[in-house]
Recover the amino acids of this structure.
């Protein structure tokens, strides 16, 4: 018996054009809307992610929570030459599927997957993965870890002035501690992007993404 994510991978392979990221994203969205709900960021909030990437043109994007590769593909397809996405995913099975879908989209050279738990991987980014700074961080793993992991990124001096943090699901399921932290810190300039989303039960709920721009010298 296959898992939902294996079925998603097979569907995406069979219903998209190899080397064509947009068709891969569309196949993900169609699987989730027509067949089985999946937890990727989706088109509505994906547009907010696209805009943030287009505005910043980051060299290094860090994604915490890559699942099956949808948002990694969304980011990588817009990067300029030399740009890359580092995806951190604690499930080996999801990380393998993400590698597969990213390769299928033709973006394998731009996305590096690290399998591990965010709070363990972040302190190793410099020493073990050659990442000295991150320009863009997509927080999409566990809302309860958003603040801890952001503080880890600060402590390990991985952020610099102008680095952008985009956090998903800040209203649903919700990340109140994270919102309080970034809104209350002089180091961050925040903007909220509301969005309605479809839940696993088929309900429509109000959610949103928080964009926080980091300023190193303000404290
Ligand atoms: C909402 S999904 C990510 C969706 C993905 N960003 C997308 O839009 O295609 C959350 C993912 O985070 C992973 N995850 C949860 N906690 C994590 C942690 N502490 N470290 C790394 N990955 C984690 C889960 O296994 C899951 O695949």
């Amino acid at each position: 018996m296959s898992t939902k994510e294996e079925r998603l991978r097979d569907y995406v392979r069979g219903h998209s054009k190899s080397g064509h990221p947009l068709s891969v994203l569309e196949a993900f969205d169609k699987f989730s809307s027509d067949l089985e709900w999946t937890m990727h960021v989706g088109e509505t909030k994906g547009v907010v992610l696209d805009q943030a990437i287009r505005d910043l043109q980051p060299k290094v994007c860090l994604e915490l929570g890559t699942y099956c590769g949808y948002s990694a593909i969304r980011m990588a397809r817009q990067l300029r030459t030399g740009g890359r996405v580092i995806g951190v995913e604690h499930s080996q099975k999801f990380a393998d599927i993400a590698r597969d879908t990213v390769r299928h989209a033709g973006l394998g050279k731009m996305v590096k997957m690290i399998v591990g738990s965010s709070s363990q991987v972040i302190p190793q980014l410099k020493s073990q993965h050659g990442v000295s700074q991150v320009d863009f961080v997509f927080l999409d793993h566990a809302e309860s870890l958003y603040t801890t992991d952001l503080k880890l990124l600060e402590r390990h001096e991985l952020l610099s002035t102008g680095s952008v943090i985009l956090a998903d699901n800040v209203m649903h399921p919700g990340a109140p501690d994270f919102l309080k932290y970034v809104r209350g810190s002089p180091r961050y300039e925040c903007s909220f992007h509301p969005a309605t989303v479809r839940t696993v039960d088929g309900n429509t709920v109000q959610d949103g993404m928080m964009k926080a721009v980091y300023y190193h010298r303000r404290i």
